[in-house]
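Figure S4 source data
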Amino acid sequence: MTATTASKEVLAKAAQQAGLELHHPEAIREGSHAMYRVGDIVARIGKRGSLKDAERELRVSQWLNSSGIPTVEAVSELPQPIVVDDRPATWWRLIPDHRPATPAELGAMLRALHSLPPPADPDLPRYNPFGDLPARLATAGTADDGDRTWLLTRYDELRQQYDNLPDPLRLAVIHGDAWQGNLVVPPSGIPTVLDLDKVSLGRPEWDLIQLAVDYTDFARVLEADYLSFVNAYGGYDVTTWSSFRLFADIQELRWVGFAIGQAGASEAAARQAKHRIECLRGEVTRPWRWEAL
């Protein structure tokens, strides 16, 4: 059974339990996490064993909205979450006709988010920037032995440097995947936060690094747009921070790990994974051009 077929079966069973009629659900995202549009509802199907994560996402949404940060809302009229085959299904209100946030809008939201005191409920986990990256690199079937060894050595180097950093003065509430597509702007003009599965306690720089490396290493963000992001955040430019290069290198290794995880699905993804490895190994000069996967 393919991942798509399995997700659709979970969706059908969960919808039946919720009393929700399915009329040609539209796939938004497939994979271990899957999302489908069902009329004016978005169904999110989590991976196996992620019930606690799904429950926390529901509480995070409620807490952020009550704290003054507009966030995607759960559908309160439906039972939440519903577990089918050890996979939780949650239901969210569709945000129609939206656009990605501008860098300035993203910076303003992150400034507000990072200013919030950590909540008593939900109990947020400590952010882990590495996640399952070591396993992804070790089992990279599409990478040759030389590349795999280099990637694992690079991971060890970056992990040691990160573990040796002094403790931060404080841990902020962070989004954990802060890019413009995870803050959307509907016709109302109110930027709204999406994708809550990585909301956690961590160094605020993790929420600044993605746009920063898009600017410095990929030239995907114009200087004026990057400066608007910095100004909206309050003037802090993470590229001037002493640990910027370490965080940038970790972020880029994570993006390589993601590409490796997709490489078995298509030749295009395998070529992209190889290209990204070549970039990290210094065989391609910056600014890099990486295709979205």
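Figure S5 source data
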Amino acid sequence: MARTRTWATIALAGALGLSLAGCSSHGGKRAEDAREAAVQGRAAVDTPRWTFAMITHSGDGDTFWDIVQSGAKQAAVKDNIHFLYSHSAEAQQQAQLVDAAVDQKVDGIIVTLAKPDALKAAVARAEKAGIPVVTVNSGSAQSEAFGALAHIGQDETVAGEAVGDELDRRGRKKVLCVLHEQGNVGHEQRCAGVRKTFHGTVENLYVNGTDMPDVQSAVGARLQADPSVDAVVTLGAPYADTAVKAKADAGSRAEIDTFDLNAKVAGELKDGTLGFAVDQQPYLQGYEAVDQLWLHKYNANVLGGGKPVLTGPQIVTRDQAAALERYTKRGTR
């Protein structure tokens, strides 16, 4: 235990290099003004310089979490917050990072609950230490029970249901739902939501999300084996382009759709390579999580009234892609 706790402490300490400098200025700034403040490295408030730690279940190189961090960092500058970010795709290591943040006596913690059972004890330790916790992105069903102040993200079942409805509108009959992280409760909820509202057939395909060639091979093999599959739904933006390549390998005519939005997805929506995307606004998740902790520390505010604060889903099609593309290119959508 001592060795793993040391690993987590070192990993969190490494996040110090990502912290943002800020100085006091005047308040009343809205989001665009706060963005300008972030560029200039100045705060929009004169509250104490609290330290907030965000610990997520992200693996390396996942662009979705770059967008979450972008929102969190902007809010941190605005709110005069010393912001720390760390992550691990391994649930036990993520829990150790939460423990390390508690040991460092941070003023607030933001955490994802993709694998909630593994994080329950760590979240409880934070709360016992008097550190407020906000959950973000995943774990809406467990957030209140775990004692978090609020949950900010989308309801994954509702998002899946929206996908099922959209697939019906498009006349699809058989869908491959590609799960790239086994054990992630949010991913299971997404595919279950699709199955709930979609009038056709939904088949789950589990792939190794850390190995893109394996993802491409698995999706391509399934499409080749079953030409009746007329839609593929990936659960993260980086996997959409891989599914497009798998479709070409298999000579399939299936439509490729995806959860989440980034610059690549926006471009492929615009040119018709992808059918639609489900945007949960990750920038907003990071921004509002930091703001919620700041509001609680400053004014004892709590968002949501015990219910999740929803940032999605928003179905994005070719019609909306052009308008959103400039925001994806700057890393805020």
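The CA atoms of residues 75 and 102 lie 22 Å apart. The radius of gyration is 20 Å.
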